[in-house]
Design goal:
Chain lengths: 237, 274
């Protein structure tokens, strides 16, 4: 399998302090990569770099097959602001097509079809005309995942997709993401705090540490590495 | 009452005062309600309020120095919009206290300057609005600027939705969210300055906030809120103007009261639905 994203010696800082230093890893086509790491280890900064929102101090991120930052379907971290927002599910989902639209001001019928397909794929088609403030947490995440699918050509980047969900909705979400990875051949990059689920679903683990050390390898390799002891040790406290 | 009604239909009054005021008023009302949707949902409603006070300060200074009021107020308020937006997005300084600081300073300067110069009449127009005293030039300018604001809003509608709903996602799809915030700030600044000439600086923020809050009581979709807010604001404006002419009340205040009435009605309907 070829590399779809190659990161070479990334350096990035946040508010003047270095949060990424000499980080190198690759994402292969069809990968399910989980990014682990405690708070402050640079996960969010890495996400922003992958999306092209944040400038690197040095190093490079290379995409294969003429893909660009914009071909990544992004599911942002849960934010409170969306509560009470008047918007229907279909309005939110189709806004995922913005990136592929260039400067044209309105959506084409082709883009409407893409949005419809994404809603169908995630089983929220009946909710299309419902207001997003009436949805449950799990349904809201499905809606945002559908929006990410509209933007995605081959890759999904999910930033803590299960935060705030109850256990059954969490499991559903993990199954859905796994299906998108296996059946729909989407490359998945997921930031998560849930080490157990990451070990269960991911093909590969990228672990960041606030000491600027990092690990990238299979879950098996990860469980025997000293990085896993570090992170597990902390979460057991 | 009937004297007022008679007066309303004399040809001169209709053509030279009422008609331009109505057209200009409707245009500015639509602008305020459209921009209001984003401002309210992005929790920027206080910016509209702050800008109107800054506009008042600028207009007072312009009046005292005998300069064309709009030409002074527009650039000052647009610059203030840039600064306030910067402050709101910068977490180091608290946005709402910065707005309070700016607006009271501008208000104080405005009042100081105008009271010292003994110019209370013109300035109180800007405090409480004077839609029937707008000059022809002002009316034409408000119509032109309103058309620009409405066109920009329509063309950027989908992007504005995306930036309003979820800024981090919008950035990830390549939308320059910072630039859109600036565009919204500039459009708001223009609307606020025009709106204060008719509604007064005390009432313009209600023109921005009320239609959206009213529409949000019953609408599920973003588009529904935009359309309803626009409609409610125009209807409120017309009814408010009619009341003002019939009963000789202050136009700005009458329009706001009608807006309050609609808000209560929609709120009640929203409650009934649940």
């Amino acid at each position: 399998m070829k590399n779809i994203i190659t990161c070479n010696r990334l350096e990035a800082s946040y508010d003047g302090t270095k949060v990424l230093e000499g980080l190198s890893f690759a994402v292969r086509e069809g990968d399910y990569l989980c990014i682990l790491g405690e708070n402050g280890s640079g996960k969010s900064t890495l996400v922003k770099c992958l999306l092209g929102i944040k400038q690197l101090d040095s190093g490079s991120i290379e995409f294969a097959d003429k893909l660009t930052y914009r071909d990544i379907g992004y599911l942002p971290q849960h934010t409170e602001m969306q509560k009470g927002f008047p918007a229907t599910v279909s309005e939110v989902v189709i806004s995922g097509c913005l990136g592929r639209r260039g400067i044209r001001p309105f959506y084409s019928s082709e883009e409407r079809k893409i949005a419809e397909k994404a809603m169908e794929r995630l089983g929220i088609k009946e909710l299309a005309s419902r207001s997003c403030r009436e949805l449950s947490g799990g349904q809201q995440q499905r809606m945002l995942l559908a929006r990410a699918l509209c933007a995605a050509k081959k890759m999904l980047l999910l930033d803590e997709p299960v935060t705030g969900l109850d256990p059954s909705a969490t499991n559903e979400m993990y199954e859905l993401i796994s299906e998108l990875n296996k059946k729909d051949k989407m490359t998945v990059i997921m930031v998560t705090h849930d080490v157990t689920k990451a070990m269960e679903y991911a093909d590969r683990i990228l672990c960041l540490c606030s000491c600027r050390e990092s690990f990238c390898g299979t879950p098996e390799e990860y469980s025997t590495s000293h990085m896993s002891n570090k992170l597990m040790g902390e979460s057991n406290v | 009452m009937f004297d007022n009604l008679k007066l309303m239909f004399t040809h001169d009054f209709l053509v030279s005062i009422l008609l331009p005021a109505l057209i200009g008023g409707v245009c500015v009302t639509i602008c305020a309600s459209l921009l209001g949707v984003t401002l309210v949902l992005k929790k920027y409603s206080m910016i509209g309020d702050g800008l109107s006070h800054i506009g008042y300060g600028a207009l007072s200074v312009a009046a005292v120095m005998n300069l064309a009021p709009l030409k002074v107020a527009l650039p000052v308020v647009i610059a203030a919009a840039f600064v306030l937006l910067r402050l709101s997005s910068n977490s180091a300084v608290s946005g709402d206290s910065a707005i309070a600081l700016f607006s009271t300073t501008a208000l104080a300067i405005g009042i100081l300057v105008s009271s010292k110069a003994g110019l209370t009449n013109d300035v109180s127009h800007y405090m409480f609005g004077s839609i029937l005293a707008m000059s022809r030039e002002d009316v034409i300018l408000s119509i032109v600027l309103s058309i620009i604001v409405i066109a920009a809003f329509l063309l950027l509608y989908n992007r504005i939705f995306s930036v309003t709903f979820d800024e981090s996602f919008a950035r990830a799809t390549g939308v320059n969210a910072g630039m859109y915030s600036l565009i919204i700030a500039v459009l708001t600044a223009v609307t606020v300055v025009l709106g204060m000439m008719m509604m007064g600086s005390l009432l313009i923020s209600s023109l921005i906030v009320f239609p959206t809050l009213t529409a949000m009581r019953v609408c599920r979709s973003f588009r529904g809120v935009v359309l309803t807010a626009g409609t409610v604001s125009v209807v409120s404006f017309m009814i408010g103007m009619f009341i003002a002419l019939m009963f000789n009340t202050a136009p700005g205040a009458s329009i706001v009261v009608v807006n309050v009435f609609f808000f209560l009605v929609f709120w009640f309907i929203g409650k009934l639905r649940k």
